[in-house]
Amino acid sequence: MESAILKTENLSAYYGNNRVVKSVTLPFYERKITVVMGPSGCGKSTFIRCLNRMHELVPGARVEGRVYLRNEDVYAMDPTIVRRKIGMVFQKPNPFPTMSIYDNVIAGYKLTGIKLKKSEADRIVETSLRQAALWDEVKDFLHKRGTFLSGGQQQRLCIARALAMEPEVLLLDEPTSALDPVATARIEELMEELSKTVTIVLVTHNIAQASRISHYTAFFYMGELVEFGPTERVFTVPRDRRTEEYLVGKFG
Ligand SMILES: Nc1ncnc2c1ncn2[C@@H]1O[C@H](COP(=O)(O)OP(=O)(O)OP(=O)(O)O)[C@@H](O)[C@H]1O
Ligand SMILES: [Mg+2]
After folding, report:
1. Span 164-174, pLDDT tens digits
2. CATH number, domain containing residue 13
3. If you take atom 4 of ligand 1, which residue's CA is the nearest one?
4. Residue ranges of the chain with pLDDT lower than 70?
5. Distance between Cα 45 and ligand 2 center (Å)
6. 191 alpha carbon to ligand 1 midpoint, in Å?
7. Nearest ligand 1 atom to alpha carbon 174
8. Do the domain assignments include residue 137?
9. Considering only CA atoms, which of 251, 205, 199, 210 is closest in space to residue 234?
């Protein structure tokens, strides 16, 4: 059995009295890509935002149940440390518009008040941009603004910014849905490469993408985890009728 680096136990999430994630127990295996799929509004984004304690930042929002990172209760940890160890990338590329490419990469350090020596910052910037497969394209103008890049490059910059904090887990919420097919293919390649060192949780509506690159698939429906297993099994012999209907495009 593979080891789960991250897992939830009976995790529920609320907005006020509205329970939108319902008692989900799910493992995330180390250095694997786990896809979270399901129809719009079924709670995917809310669920993954519970994993790194972003959900509680919404006024009136609340979490029940447990999240463990390497058997440590995430809700008993310092949230800043949790968000360092569990990085996040969103649907729309969101580099800080007034910052240079260089400063965007190390923004996480600045925002949390960690001072870096110039040599150390240089090293982190280069390593992170290389890991995000962006270094060669930007190395000659690191001091230009990040927003000057193409959409796909901006998304890779956001991935570099997350990687700069040396996370153990990377949460990606529909990272390619705002990108064209070429930029999407590059990010898919990148996710596969990154999964050799980082555990990846990917929310996607793109069924072909899920089947191409993920190792495990979790299927959500109306806040519940309906099905979880190796992607190949879930895609070829779904156990739940709702998973099957989603995969053949009946709803979603
Ligand atoms: N900030 C919020 N305040 C109140 N309700 C919210 C908030 N964000 C989401 N919800 C509700 O929680 C439920 C789950 O939303 P969520 O965004 O997690 O779904 P999703 O699966 O990510 O959907 P999509 O595929 O469209 O991104 C929905 O009913 C949504 O209306
Ligand atoms: Mg969402």
Report:
1. 999 999 999 99
2. 3.40.50.300
3. 15
4. 1, 252
5. 4
6. 25
7. 27
8. no
9. 210
Amino acid at 54: M
160 and 132 Cβ atoms separated by less than 8 Å:
yes
Residues spanned by the domain of 223: 4-95+167-247
Task: Tell me how far apart the alpha carbons of residues 178 and 252 are, in angstroms, rounded to a whole number.
Answer: 18
Q: Probe ligand 1: pick from 12, 15, 174, max atoms within 8 Å of CB?
A: 15
Write the single-letter amino acid at 2: E
Calpha distance 188→176 (Å, rounded)? 8
Which residue has its alpha carbon closest to ligand 1 atom 10?
15
Q: What is the pTM of this model?
A: 0.95
- Give the contacts of 132 (CB within 8 A, at least 6 positions apart): 156, 157, 159, 160, 163, 190
- Answer whether 40 contacts ligand 1 (Cβ < 6 A): yes
Asked whether residue 162 is assigned to any structural domain, the reply reads no
Give the 3-state secondary structure of residue 73: strand
